[in-house]
Amino acid sequence: MILKKINLNNLLIPLGYLIAIPSIIIIRLISPIFLVRWYCTFSTRVGHYAENIQLYIAMKEQKKLFQSNKKFFDIFYDRKHICNKQLQKMWLKNKNLFFLPYWIMEPINNINEFILDKIIDSKNVHYIGYYYDPKKIIEHKVVPIESVDTYNCVDKGGYCLSFTEEEIKYGDDKIAKMGINKDDKYIILVLRDSNYLKTQYPNINWEQHSKRDTKIDYYYETIKFLDEKNYKVILIGSGASQINQFKKKNIINYEISEFKSEFLDIFIFSKDNCKFVISSITGIDSFGPMFKKNVLEIGIVPFSYARTYSKYYSYIFKKYYSKSLDRYLTMKEIFELGLAESLGNELDHELEFIHPNSQEILDSTKELLGKIEKNFYSNKEAKKLQIEFSKKYKLYIDKYLPKRTTEKIPGMVTEKYILQNKYLLN
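Below the sequence we write its predicted structure tokens.
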């Protein structure tokens, strides 16, 4: 029992510093001809742990990660806390990644940053995520520190996560016991609230993220529609843990079920009969595009955080209501007033975020389902407005928040939503 309580990383850190001193000297000496870089993953947050590394792999495959003829070698290492050990296991076996333990890499990082850089500044060349071209450091940082697919590499890439045959057999058995048969079609509804972060990291104030939360009430009409279409709905996310079990047989509250596990958190996104994901924009929805699943993002805030970089994302926003003007702000105003990256906590007296209503969510769900089932017909005016929105959104991002710039924006606001909210384009 005592051994179980001992953190191996803490125990071996002194040894790590003995290894680090000669290692970092060698790394620096050979850097003009062979560059060794490293990155400490966001292993504490499932969204960043999944999406940031997915983007790294996709950009590496497309040769967009490090635009130089210089040879390089990248090392990853996790933090002490791992939010999902199944995901860690899958990253460790990925051929595009090389991991070393925290107790080795953290001393190397510390000696380089806090001692050697004070003597001879390495200009961040050893840290993955500061530049694409080694001759040009990018002030706002890049993948995998940031989760922005600047070069639209994800859609061109393959699957970055894979299960063994034994895992697939195990997962299929668990899903069957949950009440999902091989021929059943299901969607995943991800509900966000602050409980996950508050529970996992109680010493940190997460109040600023409360504006991103949602409630199940907004989704009842959509759930009813999917039930009538004979789709099973799996509720997942910390918001679902507050909901009592639905009585309908097609609604499965996975979050409070006996089947809830770090393994199934990922596996349920991987199945072919998972047709798409509806998400209130929280970390776990990143598993959708990893398995080529469409994700409908509901209630994006901050406004600039739409994942426009991939065709697998479609989205609708929370509205920015100005109390003094007594109206919603346009997209132009949101960007020009510097609100596109804000959660608005410091402006509660002036700004209120209005969640998409039930009808907007239902209409966007019908639109996505229609496209998947190939029976959706675009409204000419709505399609025109959708294209106009995308062009203006990219224009404002490029001008005001270049760190979120992407070459193209295949991810789109839904046609129904922009048709009902034309004011955004004023």
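The first helix runs from residue 2 to 5.
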